[in-house]
Amino acid sequence: MWSELRDLREGQDLGTPPRGGEPVALVVDGKPVTVPAGSSVMLAAAAGSCPVPKLCATDTLEAFGSCRVCLVEIQGRKGYPAACTTLVEPGMVVTTQSPRLHELRQGVVELYLSDFPQEDVPGGWSELHETLQQVGVASHPYGQGENHLQAPVDESNPYFLFDPAKCIVCSRCVRACEEIQGTFALTIQGRGFASQVAASQGERFLDSECVSCGACVQACPTQSLVEKSLFVGGYHRAQPPKA
Amino acid sequence: MSAAHGDGMVIAIERLVAMANQIGDFFAPYPQGQREEGVRNHLRHYWDPRMREALLAHLDANAGAGLHAHVLAATRLLRDEQQTARKAYAGPPPRG
Amino acid sequence: MPNPRKPDGSLVTTCAYCGVGCGFKAETIGGEIVRMIPWKEGKANHGHACVKGRFAFDYYQHPDRVRTPMIRSSIDQPWREVSWDAAIAHAAAEMQRIQAQHGRGSVGAVSSSRCTNEEIFLMQKFARVALRNNNIDNCSRICHSPTQFGLSATLGAGAASQHFDSVLQADVILVVGANPTEGHPVFGSMLKRRVRQGAKLLVVDPRRTETAESAHCKATVHLALRPGTNVLVLNSLAHVVVTEGLHDAAFIAARCHPAEFEQWRALVADARYAPEVVGPEASLDPADIRAAARVYAKAKRSTIYYGLGVTEHSQGSTGVMCLGNLALACGMLGREGVGVNPLRGQGNVQGGSCLGSWPHMLSGYRFVTDDAVRATFEQDWRLSLDPEPGLRLPNMFDAALAGTFKAIYIQGEDPVQSDPNQNHIVAAMKAMECVIVQDLFLNETAKYAHVFLPGSSSLEKNGTFTNAERRVSMVRKVVPPLAGLEDWEITVKLINAMGYPLHYDHPSQILDEVARLSPAYQGMSFALIERCGSVQWPCNPQAPEGTEVLHTQTFPRGKANFMLTGYVPTTERIDERHPLLLTTGRILSQYNVGTQTRRTGNVAWHDEDLLDIHRQDAEARGIRDGDLVAISSRYGETRLHARISDKVSPGVLYTTFHFAQSKANAVTSDLSDWATNCPEYKVTAVEVAKVPATAPASARARAGAKA
Predict the structure, then answer these.
(1) Among A29, A142, C446, C643, which has the highest number of CB atoms less than 10 A from its own CB?
(2) Cβ atoms of residues A154 and A204 within 8 Å
(3) In this predicted model, what pLDDT tens digit does every residue of C4-21 receive, in sequence order?
(4) Based on the structure, what is the number of domains in chain B?
(5) Residue range A1-142, CATH number
(6) pLDDT by residue (tens digit) across C56-78?
(7) Are residues C381 and C514 in the same domain?
(8) What is the DSSP letter of C450?
(9) Which of A183, A230, A238 sits opposite C34 (nearest CB)?
(10) Which phi and psi angles does C659 have, rounded to 5°?
(11) Nearest C-alpha of chain B: how many angstroms from C614?
């Protein structure tokens, strides 16, 4: 009845919210998996111990389908559907690992890395870092292009900071503020490359409607939103190499 | 004020009278009989014995001046321990 | 180093800040707490948190924490640091001296709802086996004691009928005198989630609270009643239900005493409770009262959540009974999505109620006047117990002023700041010969103390908390107690020093004793809670893993009672000298009297208490936003900066009480609930006047127009 809340498990991210429907049997990477109706292919894969790499999905939020990292192959379907927004069906046959999928995912992740501080790739422990490892990417082939690496850090909140340089605009923070907290303080401002996370109408976090519940920090996969207490002596961003 | 053992009034009598009347106000809508028992039971189970004794002393010394009529009657009922239900009591007067 | 440090330790524990009781993972690096991460498997919070539990934990190592026991012979002397043994011996000797001189009943104790169930249980045991009286109370005396009384009287159990998740099944949510999005934020988020899904929201509150109106969440009906008219308005809702035939006759016939229903129906059907009569008296539109009653009664599943706006009145217990009556009349009990639910303030107030920390009750809500109940305790503790009820907290202060009450042991409470009519409390404190304060900080009450025992925060001890949905969860020791002892260890030492030999190896043994002596906790143990994550009482052989929803088949006393709830206006009334009504409440970022949260980064949001005043009242007095104003009542005076606000109605003022210097309780009255003496914090007649400004208004007060 309350699967979305009660079936969450510590230390395991199913990718999309657990559901409480009738059991549905399918095959993921050759293994039979049974999950409740209404579940996503991503959840079925996680339940079957073949987790699909992901960035914009997490099991405390409804699926969004924006990051394109969780692409899979489904027998009898064209193209590469996103595992997070595709619901399971009886008898479905899913493949989560193939040379083509690997190539596609690497391409997507490299694009994300092209606008991410290169200095922060080694030694990190965020979800992004886990995904990098899963996909087998540590760098990108692109030259220095337009980026957000110089955007100012918002340190107004006493407890957490927002570094836009690490933001991949996956909207998890915005959705957490809406779906979990119900405050609607965050938004994505601008379009295309200029789009960025903003509190209220582009105010500092402290001056916005933000109630500092921390749901956005918890949801952020890149530690772009991160607790200040994890840094000794304040937050000093590594300087990007000169162009 | 006296601090010697047993001498002092535990709480100023004006306050006790006001508290007792407040209890009386709650039980006022109940039928006669139930109303007095309700007040009596409440005093018996929720008031420190010294507070009850002070109220009884006020009954003797000043005819319970200031107490509403049914609270006065309830205070008299307090005298009779036999009538006091010792069972758990949290609400309405026991039904007759 | 732009990548953050990675925590190397993690322990699941329970937040102590409010009655929601969120589960958290306390994460550490090298033994130091670096962050609190909401526990996804926490059954009260499901991985969500608020600014207090998530971030405001740093108070635990604040420089103000007292690290050594201290004593002094009189309150004008400086404190003297002593060893634990010396402090305990001194405290025990003083208690014994005073009892010998002034009688057994001249001393008492009050337990803390920031402490664990095990510690609360030990505090009442201290009073009963060491002081040998029943002068023991807990802080719910000044918040939810009417809940215990009113819900026991109507439903038979003085606690929430539902679990929090139940709200996600409700079609109508009636919130009375509570502002969950600020006071109980994680539950508030869940409530809002349900409203976004389409449930209707009804709010009864004098203020236009955040709960009543916020982004994507707006009350269908908001009854912004005049403070002090709860019982009148709730009876009026009942009037509409019974006169329009909206009651659930089948439920009443099956589950309630029919004769009592008829008696009650006659009372509320009286013309004086008709909305058209009540409306003008409560400053409400009669049509709104009718609309709210119809929405509540006609839905399939309507639920009630309420807070201190119901209880902290001279008719607090009556107000709670009104809610019980209303739910009974409409058959809104015993299923998912319905019920009557108090939103409790402190982390363990429910535990404070359950564990016998009452002058008239032993653990499990059983009367000390009941011979059979007392006998079970006497057998376990091997001594005879005082068969008479003891003094309640306000009675203790009254008795101190009358000279018959001389010593008190206060664990983790700050009555000088938190209790009403501050002048009266201070005088009572000064009249006592020995005040023992056990706390994290030298709080306001400690100014009048003779013995200070440095306590431990909830991050420094093992035990359990019971939240507002009756859920018992583990509190785990993340860091060692700063002053060396967990609170339960201090109380054990004191009990021993008073001559009653007592020993526990671990708090789990105290919970075992609670289970042995309290029917609702019968099946509880650390092992069970470890296994299940948390367990809701009642927990017994019929419900070995606890109970989510109460009253499904039958009520604890078989059938439920309708109580007669006649409206009796408070004697605290406005007049020419005091023409405005002041009501009090709390804000999201600060917790209670602020002892903890004032010592964290949360002051970024709220660094002083402000007085909310309607433009009309302000203009009539020449008060502008940010002005320093004097607030005077019949009991005292205090000063705050004014904030012009449209959240209060004309004639109503509002402030919070988080900062000691605000002295909000300097103006509150000593009137209290008829049944429990719970103070009437919510209604004080006052006047305000601009203070000719020499002191500049603070920056935040000047910028405070946002509200």
Answers:
(1) C643
(2) yes
(3) 999 999 999 999 999 999
(4) 1
(5) 3.10.20.740
(6) 999 999 999 999 999 999 999 99
(7) yes
(8) S
(9) A230
(10) -115, 130
(11) 33
